[in-house]
Structures are given as structure tokens and as C-alpha cells.
Amino acid sequence: MPERPLSPHFTVYRFKYTMATSFLNRITGVALSFGLVPLVCWLVAVAAGARAQARAERWLGSPLMKLVYAGLVIAFCYHLVAGIRHLIFDTGRGLERAQARRSAWLIAAASIILILAVGGAWLAAGRGAP
Length: 130
Fold this sequence. Notes:
The chain has helices at residues 17-34, 36-48, 50-60, 63-90, 97-124. The longest helix is centred in the middle third of the chain and has 28 residues, at 63-90. 75% of the residues lie in helices and 0% in strands. By secondary structure, it is an all-alpha fold. The chain has a single domain (17-124), classed as Up-down Bundle (3 helical TM bundles of succinate and fumarate reductases). The chain is built from five helices and no strands. 8% of the residues are buried.
């Protein structure tokens, strides 16, 4: 019996900007899903009373968690901008190679600008670095 043909393996694909932006969009979406855990912990602690809330605030306000929050802000900013790009793709626009390449660079630039704006707003609010 002849073997069935298999789908191409990852080794046949070369690195492309569209592949990288799509992969990063998926990874940031997963990271944001995991970021819901601290939010739910905080909400449960608030509902459980002042003692539980104080305990949760010590854990959620630790320097390690501030790094996690900074990572979540970065993930959110990238995922937001890349998601807008995918919505534009769904309309059938921007699918040509040159347009896709340009929009990939635009995602990077817009994400960095958005990250800096959110970080600046955080610092201006007097909360210190995330």
C-alpha cells in the first residue's frame, strides 16, 4: 500500500516577516491568557475580604510581579496592533507582498510607540516603573 503524502514539515518553510508577526501575535495572545491568573487572584481576594486582599496585594505588588505586568503590557500592545492588522487582512486589503512587509514594519513601530506611551503614562501617574 503506498504511503499517503504528508503535509510539509516546518523545515521546508523559510523565515518570513509574515510568519514571524503571526507567530508573535499567537504567543502574545497566550501570554495574555496566562496574565488573567493574577487578575482573577486579585478579584477573588477582593471578594474574600480585607485580610485576603492585603495578602494578595503583598504578592501581586512584588518586584517579580511588576516584571510580569511589564511583560503583559508589552504583550498587550503588540497583540492589539497585530490584531488590527489581521482585521484589515480580513477585509482583503494589504495581502500583497510589499503591503504585508510594510505592515509588518508598521506593527513593530506602532507597538514600540504604544509601549513607550503606556510606560510614560505609568511613570507620569507616579507609580514608578512597572
